[in-house]
Design a protein that fits this description.
The protein has 153 residues and is mostly helical. The chain is built from seven helices and four strands, in the order E-E-H-H-H-E-E-H-H-H-H.
């Protein structure tokens, strides 16, 4: 056995599998009693607690933690950056909605103008309806009017 605990440098007396043996793990690290008990502490083994702590750390570092970036944004080095082409589609969608077009009509107008979704397909009415929601913009006409005024649509 090595002369130092892998974690703290103390005197080791446990060979701990990095990946549990039940999952096919073969590699071990040497740990002292204190570090080994920390690893097996019930509150540390809760995935939700570990995930919450990791998400808090990422948010503190200014990183995006929401999965796939919302339409209108790209993920660059863990941060959301506006995608100008997609922002243009969002502005058009809001403009058309304020003008009274239905979601179905907006999807048809966008398709005729050659605008496609990220997957290279025409926008569906449902997708058009979701776009402003992703940006926390309520779909009421009053709110949309404010958005258009602020975005110079």
């Amino acid at each position: 056995m090595e002369k130092k605990c892998f974690e703290c440098g103390g005197i080791p007396n446990h060979k701990h599998h990095v990946v549990p043996k039940s999952y096919g793990g073969t590699q071990t690290v040497n740990l002292c009693d204190a570090c080994h008990s920390k690893i097996h502490s019930p509150h540390l083994l809760k995935t939700s607690a570990m995930t919450k702590k990791a998400m808090q750390r990422l948010k503190k570092e200014g990183k995006y933690t929401g999965g796939r970036p919302p339409y209108g944004y790209d993920l660059v080095d863990g941060k959301l950056v506006k995608n100008q082409k997609e922002q243009e589609v969002i502005k058009l969608t809001i403009k058309y909605r304020v003008e009274g077009l239905s979601y179905r009509k907006i999807s048809k107008v966008l398709a005729e103008a050659g605008y496609l979704s990220r997957t290279g397909r025409s926008f569906t009415p449902n997708r058009i309806m979701q776009m402003p929601n992703e940006h926390r913009n309520p779909l009421s006409a009053i709110s949309l009017s404010r958005i258009v005024a602020n975005n110079n649509c």
